[in-house]
Amino acid sequence: MVEVRIDSIRIGPRNQYRVVMLRDVSSNRYLPIYIGQAEADSISLQLSGTRPPRPLTHDLIVSILKAFEVHVRYVIVNELREDTYYARIAVRTAEGRDLSIDARPSDAIAIAVRVGCPIFVDEEVMDQHAFVAEEEAEVSAGGSKSGSSEDDEDLGAFKDFLSSLDLDDLDKR
C-alpha cells in the first residue's frame, strides 16, 4: 500500500467533474481521480475547516459510525476496472471485528478527511496509473528547472487550460 495525501482538487478539463489529486507521501507521484462536484465540495469544506449549519452526508455517516463505536482505520483506493476506481474503507467494530466496506473513492476520501485516518492506494494501481509531475521529474532526474520560480508561478493553471482545449476541429474552419 502506498500512503497518499490530498494534493489538490481541480476542475476537470472537459467536463463538470472535479479531479482529486492524490500525492504519494514518499515520492513525487500523483494519482488523479475524477469525482463529482458534491463530493469535491464535501472534501474541500472539511479541509478548509468550514462547518456547514447542518451535517452533510459524510458528516452523518461519521456520526453513525461513532454512535456504533466503529473506528475507521484507513481507506484504500484498491482497483481500477473499466475506467472506474474502487475503494475500501477499513473499519474496526467495538467488538474488535475488522471489516472492509466497498466505497467510491470520493466517499472514502471524504470520510477519511473527517476522521483523520490514512489514505492509501494499492501499489499496483499507483504503479500503473500515477504520473510524475514534469517539474519535479526534471529536478529528480538530476536536471535543473529553467527560469525562475516567479516566472513559472502561475503556469500550472495556464498549462491546464491549454490541455483542455479541443483543437481537433480547428482545421475545419
Give a description of the structure:
By secondary structure, this protein is of the alpha+beta class. It has one domain: Bifunctional nuclease domain. The protein has seven helices and eight strands; from the N terminus they run βββααβββαβαβααα. The chain has helices at residues 37-48, 57-67, 105-115, 123-129, 134-140, 149-152, 155-164; strands spanning 2-11, 18-24, 29-35, 71-81, 84-92, 98-103, 119-121, 131-132. The chain has an eight-stranded mixed β-sheet. Helix 2 (57-67) crosses helix 3 (105-115). The longest helix has 12 residues, at 37-48. It is globular and about 45 Å long. The N and C termini lie far apart (50 Å). Mean pLDDT is 84; it is low at 136-155 and 166-173.
- Tell me, what's the shape? globular
Tally of discrete structural domains: 1
Structural class, from secondary structure content?
A: alpha+beta
CATH topological fold name: Bifunctional nuclease domain
Number of E-state strands: 8
Give the topology, please.
Blueprint: E1 2-11, E2 18-24, E3 29-35, H1 37-48, H2 57-67, E4 71-81, E5 84-92, E6 98-103, H3 105-115, E7 119-121, H4 123-129, E8 131-132, H5 134-140, H6 149-152, H7 155-164
Parallel strand pairs: 4-7
Antiparallel strand pairs: 1-2, 1-7, 2-3, 3-8, 4-5, 5-6
